[in-house]
Amino acid sequence: MRQVDGWPCKHVAVAVAGAARDEHGDVGRAFEWASVTKLATAVAVLVACEEGIVALDDPAGPPGATLRHLLAHASGLPFEDGEPIARPGTLRIYSNAGFALAAALVAERAEMPFGSYFEHVWGFPLAGHPGSGIVASMRELLTVADELLTPSRLSAETHAEAVSVQFPGLKGVLPGFGRMEPNDWGLGFELRDAKSPHWTGAHNSPRTFGHFGRSGSFLWVDPERGLALACLTDLAFGDWARDAWPRLADAVLA
Predict the structure, then answer these.
(1) Half-sphere exposure of 20 toward its Cβ, with a 13 Å CA cutoff?
(2) What are the sequence ranges of the domains in the chain?
(3) CATH number of 2-253
């Protein structure tokens, strides 16, 4: 993991969880998680489903869409606020707006701000947008990694559904990596499957799932290896990450 010392960022924290455990770098420093936030938000929404506050097939978002569509980026909504640009269930369009609507539905039904519900689930705060607002350290990100490896907030059945393909066969753009056919997602989790190029390693199993953020952050979980790899940096995602992240993944897996 010490290869991160050669990355072009000023601050970095990296950690492995699961079958092996190790940490390196600024693990106590608070970083912006950017879209890695969606992993924690998705779990919070799924907890609300298990508590009966909402249901995955409740209508939500544009006409014809459900909470399931919102979490799976299949609602037809654009990246940010705006009118739908596709019919629900016909195209995979990565949407921050969809996550905001999912969180708003939980807040309405729970009769509390979503940030309060999120903190009830996780024990640490969501400071901003439910799709990108966490600013926290590697300690908190490892809490998310441990949940995704061995769920305790979610039932095994809900976790299994969350990491299975929702609306199979949908085409779409994986931000930063281009058009994927199919562009498979679970319920808030991006699924590696056979995607190429990809931000995980060549030796990650097709069952790997996770998320990365434009802040230079990522978390992936490979259930076949029983491993999670988490990274937080202060350098925005770019060409450096497309090269460095897969190499780090393969080194950890090796």
Answers:
(1) 12
(2) 2-253
(3) 3.40.710.10
